[in-house]
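Hi U.,

Before I forget, here's the chain from the pilot set. I'm dumping it here mostly so it's searchable later in email.
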Amino acid sequence: MPQFGIVLLAAGSSTRMGAPKQLLDYGGKPLLRHAAQVALASVCSPVIAVIGCRPSEVRPALEGLPVLIVENERWAEGMGTSIHAGVAAAEREALDGLILALADQPLVTFEILDRLVLTHLESDQPIVASQYAGTVGVPVFFSREFFPRLLSLQPDQGCKGVILAHAGSAIRLDCPEAGMDIDTPTDYDRARAAASLS
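Structure:
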């Protein structure tokens, strides 16, 4: 059975939020911990959490969870550096594929993550991406053959360009839940309301 992991990207500085969004209360726990627990409930293992900004504050949010924590010291250069750090860890773990996911998409469930893997296994397509709000992106599954391409991203690049450049090798799954990401206090209020959190 192939082994697939999850790279949880959580290294940013939350500039628009004004506070570390990884530590925002979400259902009585830090947002990052919620995301990690969702990832751990999926069929994927290991879960690799990439942290960067304020690591001494963020790391305790994962305390006690069987998560591999990778600290990206280049986080300020852009998302691409966190993808590099996570994919490099996935290579060290000899994974056959991985899901790139964000810590600030709290409506994404483990069932959604599992569906990405199942679709890959059923179709043998190397990319299975989420489609929402008129775009395509994370969470997204990449098979091992795309690890070198992800490792070649520029520091300020995300993975969307890889998905679009290899449309013939990608399946898109509708995932409106992924459209709810938390960047601002207004986003935070909307996400909590959508999840019926007070």
